[in-house]
UniProtKB/TrEMBL annotation:
Residues 21-167 form the Flavin reductase like domain. Belongs to the non-flavoprotein flavin reductase family. Keywords: Oxidoreductase. This is Flavin reductase like domain-containing protein. The keyword Oxidoreductase applies.
Length: 176
């Protein structure tokens, strides 16, 4: 690693970093999987992005101490459920301290190839197989090759920024 003179300052505080990232709105997803006993697991995730088109790869960052992450690592697969604008309650539920059982009893879901699909609350779903993980400090970076996509037109995506939920205007038409 190169050291640049003058850049030897300590990192900013966690609160300062959180304030910075609140200024960068992102889509909201719920990452789901099933464990070896077929039990569903899931957590809200806004740290998700496309990494590569060839092969089609998503990158999700999951809390290192998360039981959902542990289930993803054991199963080798996950689903990125991209929430639509009416999915705020689902985002809150899967981001809360609610038990795994309570989360999945409170939403409509179906079994998909890589785990639970939250179809009623999503505008798109990606089924992925884990290809690699990278240590990211408090989170683990999980790379997943996308092997199936389900899209639903009609409702705009749910966004999160400045510590609030937002949606795109309804008249926004995606370019293809």
């Amino acid at each position: 690693m190169n050291h640049t003179p003058g850049l030897t300052r300590k990192p900013v505080s966690p609160d300062t970093f959180k304030a910075l990232m609140s200024e960068f709105p992102s889509g909201v997803s719920v990452v789901t999987t099933t464990d070896e006993d077929g039990r569903p697991w899931g957590m809200t995730c806004s740290a998700l992005c496309s990494l590569s088109i060839e092969p089609p790869t998503l990158m999700v960052c999951l809390r290192a101490d998360s039981p959902t992450l542990a289930a993803v690592l054991r199963s080798g697969r996950f689903v990125a459920n991209l929430l639509h604008g009416d999915g705020q309650d689902v985002a809150r539920l899967f981001g809360s301290g609610s038990s795994r059982g309570e989360r999945f009893k409170s939403v409509t879901w179906t079994a998909g190839p890589a785990g639970p699909h939250l179809s009623a609350d999503t505008h798109a779903i990606a089924d992925c197989r884990v290809t690699r993980t990278v240590d990211g400090g408090t989170h683990l970076i999980v790379l997943g090759e996308v092997f199936d996509v389900t899209r639903r037109d009609g409702k705009p995506p749910l966004l999160y920024g400045r510590r609030r939920f937002h949606t795109l205007p309804h008249d926004t038409t995606p370019t293809r």
